[in-house]
Amino acid sequence: MMRWVGLSVILCGVVVGMVAAQGLKVDASWRVRGEHWDFFEAPNADNRYAFLGSLLRVGVSGQRQRQDWRIELAQTTLAGLPDNARPPSHGATYRAVNGGRDGSLFVKQLFWRWRSPSGWSLLLGRFEFSDGSERMPKDPTLQWLRRHRVQERLIGPFGFTHITRSFDGVFGAWERPQGTFTFALFRPTKGAFDLRANDELTRVTVAYGSWTFNLDAQSDARFFALYYRDTRPVLKVDNRPLANRQADRDAITITTLGGHFLRLVPDGQGRTDFLAWGAWQWGDWGRLKHRAFALAAEIGHQWDTHWRSWLRLGTFLSTGDGNPNDGYHKTFFQVLPTARLYARFPIYNLMNNRDLFVQLMLRPHRRLTLRLEAHRLWLSRFSDLWYAGGGAFNDTAFGYAGLRGGARRLMDVLDLSVEYAVDPMTTWTLYLAKAWGKEAVRANFVGTNATYAYLELQRRW
Fold this sequence. Notes:
This protein has helices at residues 2-20, 90-98, 140-150, 242-247, 439-442; strands at 25-38, 48-63, 67-79, 103-115, 120-127, 167-175, 180-188, 204-213, 219-230, 252-266, 270-285, 288-303, 310-318, 328-329, 353-365, 368-379, 386-389, 400-403, 409-423, 426-437, 449-460. The chain is mostly beta strands. The chain has a single domain, classed as Beta Barrel (Porin). The strands form 2 sheets. It has an 18-stranded antiparallel β-barrel. A two-stranded antiparallel sheet has the order 17-18. 39% of the residues are buried.
């Protein structure tokens, strides 16, 4: 670990010294997180462990009247990973993918962007991308809903992991008063859990387009289309018998159409917010025909009080596969998301999932934010799998893990996050979560309770 820390310090010093002399902009961020896992108990496995992850990012950028560019390097260090833990707990996944390797240095972003006076922009190179980040609304409440309840459901940089992912390709946008049209064609990099994050996944291709608009200052809406093609010769994770999956090396090609709508309604005590999101999928899952959908509906109310109390209720439904032998794959496919945004205890995701939740946020002080959530979780189809993960991250692992279902009830989760902003550039976050496993958990583990906690420092320069 120390060699990576030393290399990072030297690298930062060299980069800062070189670009400062040229009058370019330099920025950096450093995130350190200590994680403690007490996972569902399994025979002959280390269910209780702790490890440390560090992500250092240093960027250099330049800008002219109609052009800008950016070069960003990232360095990841992992320390104390468990030797015999069981996925989908993250420490076990890092160890399984990387073996004894504990760090890497890679190019996070490297792009050039051009802007026209008529509102067109074109970006080429390696960049980060999140679906739902287009034409961000001006209202702070709508912004929060976009970033935390809409963005990155299907495509994201997986920023919670200590390695993350980027995308190599082209991204364009056309800004109009009525709305914004965006399009993108790219391939993801390795990363997420794989330290070889410089490499590109040449057999995975994504195309995306959207139209984002607002009816007035209190609303926000988007329509999108997404195409995903994966020709990697890896074992697919689904509910078919192993022999059938081993014989299936055909490509995955899935088209997704969907959209979201946000609305704020002021009243005498504050504001009520409404959220709707949905997606429909079709295509080919190897030798199977793919048909699936997902829906989300949420409502909340924010009071104009000193603590800015914000209570929200929501439900999510995605399809699962009820029959592994009918020639159809009906499990909703989450593509390449930042899964942890919608599963803060990151041991499930939005595939074959039903989620009923309540969320409470409080701001006792302008620097302090408290967020409490309770989730009641089911599998949509008990004959399908319990899925976890965030999509393709190398050429040897499918990117999603699947555990035996066997029952509808999955687990109940209660969690709390405490975020304290020391100053605009420094933030501490404490997260605590408890999961009570139900019948689907008992089908895979001996123990039925799990806890997860972390303490994180984020510093920017």
